[in-house]
Specification:
The protein has 453 residues and is α+β, with helices and mostly antiparallel strands. Helix content is 49%, strand content 10%. It is built from 19 helices and 13 strands. Helix 7 packs antiparallel against helix 8 (151-168). The protein starts with 25 loop residues before the first strand and ends in a 7-residue tail after the last strand. The chain binds protoporphyrin IX containing FE. The site of protoporphyrin IX containing FE (HEM) has 30 residues, from helix 12, helix 13 and helix 19.
Length: 453
């Protein structure tokens, strides 16, 4: 019989006879490192074939990590209340967002911050961002005109500018540029450490720290400005935090802002770029998107665009197919735990294996095929479709991303003269910290206004 959780105090949970962690590969620390950096998704797929939909990855001195891609197990292990389980927040972001940031918090502290951050990321406040998305894309396209650059860089600039707008409201142009530049420099150093100007790992950390301090000083100035702002109708995040009751400390505000600025653009940029690449590969799908948009007329309201069923299905399929975030945050089992004949010692890390769920042929027949129809034919259950993760740690920016993605896609795909080069079939996503993104070989250009090449 299945024991949902051990009724004994964690440390005294008896280990049932024969119960062990689910089976899985045993790698040395070096093999684990190589697997994680060079062939992560293919390796996970091979392990799932060899060991089944719940397998354990043992590597060097790291705690055992259990990858779960069985929907029933996802429901049982992640969707039920797991507030007491810590999360092994991604190591990439720790030097930038700090150890007290949302992905590293647990229990009441985690819940309180989620509640605090929710209003500016939901409902009317998100829907009011339609004109900002449009304005940002217009500026970016003006800058692109007559030039060619990696598609992912264009996507990043769009999503980064939007999250800066969500965080601070409409800033004077120079100030917004300054903030965006600092964040781009931080991301470049995190993901392309070769860009650092020498000094080895310590030098890299020092450079990142210097930039983080500049962003924090920037946030501090904006907090002061928000507290003194006579405008009671401001809807940005910093005003919400700085004038809330009870107000968080300046240090806490800086931490929350940093978390959302970093987590809130990379992912959406990769999803947008992947969706554009798929539309380039599938002219039939692209035409259908255009026809649906044409049906709304020239001045369609953002609220109407984001509700278009086929466009929504294309975005959902891009999130499924592109595996932008291939795994959720690792949950750390606080005390020994028995479930379904398995025994998980304290410290075991459980991971929702999002990529593997999305590639299950029983849930998504012919999973490698890009097919938005899947999302029109049936309503997909939460344990079958989880691009934003699940349970108490589900992405707090999901509503914003699901608003921004179709709007940006609709605008870009219908821009006359916008051209992708290097969009060959079979392009593989590349690892970029905890996200998967498209390679820089995929380029975008925009014809000059006078039509010359
Ligand atoms: C297409 C875009 C996005 C995707 C695919 C995505 C995906 C995810 C996933 C899979 C997680 C982990 C959830 C889990 O472990 O169950 C997550 C967490 C998180 N995301 Fe997103 N995300 C996106 C956009 C955003 C945006 C726009 C923001 C901010 C405005 C954001 C902020 C965060 C934060 C702060 C967490 C940590 C949540 C916690 O620890 O409670 N994300 N996201």
């Amino acid at each position: 019989m299945t024991t949902p959780s051990c009724p004994e105090p964690a440390s005294r949970c008896p280990r049932p006879r024969g119960a062990t962690l689910p089976d899985g590969p045993r790698l040395t620390a070096a093999e684990l490192h190589r697997m994680e950096n060079e062939r992560q998704l293919a390796a996970w797929e091979a392990y799932a074939r060899a060991y089944g939909s719940i397998f354990t990855l043992y590597g060097g001195d790291a705690p055992p990590r259990v990858y779960v891609s069985d929907p029933a197990a996802i429901r049982r292990l992640f969707i039920s209340d797991r507030t007491a389980w810590g999360a092994r927040g991604t190591r990439y972001f720790r030097p930038v967002i700090g150890a007290q940031a949302l992905p590293y918090l647990t229990g009441d502290a985690h819940r309180a911050i989620r509640l605090l951050l929710a209003p500016p990321l939901h409902g009317d406040r998100v829907r009011a961002l339609g004109p900002a998305v449009d304005e940002i894309i217009t500026t970016e396209l003006d800058e692109l005109r007559g030039h060619r650059r990696p598609l992912i860089k264009l996507a990043h600039d769009i999503t980064l500018r939007l999250i800066v707008r969500v965080a601070f409201g409409a800033l004077p142009h120079q100030r917004e540029q300054h903030c965006v530049r600092l964040l781009i420099d931080i991301m470049d150093l995190m993901y392309e450490p070769a860009a650092a100007s020498g000094g080895g790992p310590d030098g890299l950390l020092r450079q990142i720290d210097g930039l983080v301090q500049q962003v924090q000083a920037f946030v501090g100035q904006e907090v002061t400005a928000a507290r003194g702002s006579p405008d009671q109708h401001r809807r940005d995040l910093i005003h919400h935090l700085a004038t809330g009751e009870p107000a968080p400390t300046d240090e806490q505000i800086r931490g929350h802002l940093m978390t959302l600025l970093i987590a809130g653009h990379d992912t959406t940029a990769s999803a947008l770029a992947w969706a554009l690449y798929q539309l380039e590969l599938h002219p039939g799908i692209r035409r259908r998107v255009h026809t649906e948009l044409d049906g709304l007329g020239a001045d369609a309201a953002p609220a109407a665009i984001v509700k278009l069923p086929y466009l929504k299905a294309v975005c959902a399929e891009a999130l499924r197919h592109g595996s932008v975030v291939p795994a959720g945050l690792a949950r750390v089992v606080p005390g020994a735990f028995e479930w379904n004949g398995h025994f998980f010692p304290a410290g075991t890390e459980l991971v929702p294996a999002i990529h593997l769920v999305h590639r299950r042929p029983d849930l998504y027949p012919d999973p490698e095929r890009f097919d938005p129809e899947r999302f029109l034919r049936r309503k997909v259950s939460g344990s079958h479709y989880l691009p934003f993760g699940t349970g108490t740690r589900r992405c707090p920016g999901a509503e914003l991303a699901e608003f921004e993605l179709p709007l940006a896609l609709a605008r870009l795909t219908r821009t006359p003269g916008l051209l992708l080069t290097g969009a060959a079939p079979g392009l593989r996503t590349v690892k970029n910290g905890p996200t998967m993104t498209i390679p820089h070989s995929l380029l975008v250009s925009l014809a000059p206004q006078d039509g010359r090449p």
